[in-house]
Amino acid sequence: MRKPPGLFRRLGSALILLWMLGFLWFAWFLPQPAPDGTRTDGIVVLTGGGGRIPRALAMLQAGKAQTLLVSGVDRQVRPAEFAAEYKVDPARLDCCITLGFDSVDTRSNAHEAAAWIARHKIHSVRLVTTDWHMRRATFDLWVVAPKGLVIVRDAVPSRPSLKILFLEYNKLLARMVAWLAGW
Asked: Which parts of the chain span the membrane according to its record (predicted)?
């Protein structure tokens, strides 16, 4: 049996069109901040973008959760330095904020957060990261988190460049393909 002429060209064109429509959706409909009234058991904030840590600290201060993990803190940062930089009462840091030093990328952030969530028996978490990063961060956390965890996405608004959106969209697709392949 012979293939119809142009079958591979049509399939390739359909894949490119699907990729382009996905990118448009990704870029136009960035995740938004969670409603301020939303309460969770804990907060996880991923370091790396402006406004992330202040947003998480504001939610902790407002009583939207009782505990906070700051994932991806540089190993050179000391708790006293963190407290001084973000004007956090040292007593608050001791009781309610965990500085996570074990992650270096989004996947390791997810593993660090999942271990913290399990250790603290958390059933719902507010995930704080930049809007363009939220989908991949949520996906990676969902993959490794305890089953049944409720993840409230609390995106920090930004003005990402086309380059950032392009790279992040392709990272998300690559991550999903890797997960489907069992990596």
From this structure: 12-30
Residues of 17-34 as b/e, b for ≥16 C-beta within 10 angstroms? eeeeeeeeebbeebbeeb
Q: Taking the CB of residue 16, how many other CB atoms lie within 10 A of it?
A: 10
Q: What is each CA distance from 108 to 72, 149, 165, in whole angstroms?
A: 8, 18, 21
Q: How far apart are CA 122 and CA 177, in angstroms?
A: 29
Closest CA to 68 of 133, 109, 34, 117: 117
- Joined together, the tokens standing for residue 79 give 């708790």
Q: What is the pTM of this model?
A: 0.91
**How far from 103 is each of 2, 47, 72, 92, CA to CA, in Å?**
52, 10, 5, 23
- What is the rounded distance in angstroms from the CA atom of residue 99 to the CA atom of residue 102? 9
Tokens found for residue 139: 């996906």
pLDDT in tens, 81-132: 999 999 999 999 999 999 999 999 999 999 999 999 999 999 999 999 999 9
